[in-house]
């Protein structure tokens, strides 16, 4: 049997931009992606703490050390600059492996989204 479990989580990052005219995705500072073990193109669930919106898109790397968190395309309508988000990825694995698995949890500085 396989179960879907949290693979990684970036907890409480601030939206730095929303670009409606970009082809959809979320741009994430590549340092945050590396710390959370998120790869380019990976599906990301986005939870907006400010308005309760939940959506899924895919990750694209932003400049390292920039703190960038930008929602692109239609997803830009679901956030406002300054909103606080939780970014989550999931993975399927055998249940016995899942019992031992530890997700990558990242808690960046909430003011600038940089690693602490």
UniProtKB/TrEMBL annotation:
One GO MF term attached to the UniProt entry: aspartate 1-decarboxylase activity
Post-translational modification: Is synthesized initially as an inactive proenzyme, which is activated by self-cleavage at a specific serine bond to produce a beta-subunit with a hydroxyl group at its C-terminus and an alpha-subunit with a pyruvoyl group at its N-terminus.
UniProt: substrate binding residues: 57, 73-75
CDD domains: Asp_decarbox (cd06919)
InterPro entries listed in its UniProt record: Asp_de-COase-like_dom_sf, Asp_decarbox
This enzyme's EC code(s): 4.1.1.11
BP GO annotations: alanine biosynthetic process; pantothenate biosynthetic process
Cofactor: pyruvate
Residues found modified as Pyruvic acid (Ser): 25
Highest taxon in the source lineage: Bacteria
PANTHER family per record: ASPARTATE 1-DECARBOXYLASE (PTHR21012:SF0)
Protein family according to the UniProt entry: Belongs to the PanD family.
Function: Catalyzes the pyruvoyl-dependent decarboxylation of aspartate to produce beta-alanine.
Name assigned to this protein: Aspartate 1-decarboxylase
Organism expressing this protein natively: Croceivirga radicis
């Amino acid at each position: 049997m396989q179960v879907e479990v949290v693979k990684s989580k970036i907890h409480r990052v601030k939206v730095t931009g929303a670009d409606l005219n970009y082809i959809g995705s979320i741009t994430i500072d590549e340092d945050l992606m590396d710390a959370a073990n998120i790869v380019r193109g990976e599906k990301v669930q986005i939870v907006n703490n400010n308005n309760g919106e939940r959506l899924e898109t895919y990750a694209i790397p932003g400049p390292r050390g920039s703190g960038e968190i930008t929602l692109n395309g239609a997803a830009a309508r679901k956030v406002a600059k300054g909103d606080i988000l939780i970014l989550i990825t999931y993975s399927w694995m055998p249940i016995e492996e899942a019992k031992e698995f530890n997700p990558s949890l990242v808690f960046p500085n909430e003011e600038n989204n940089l690693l602490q």
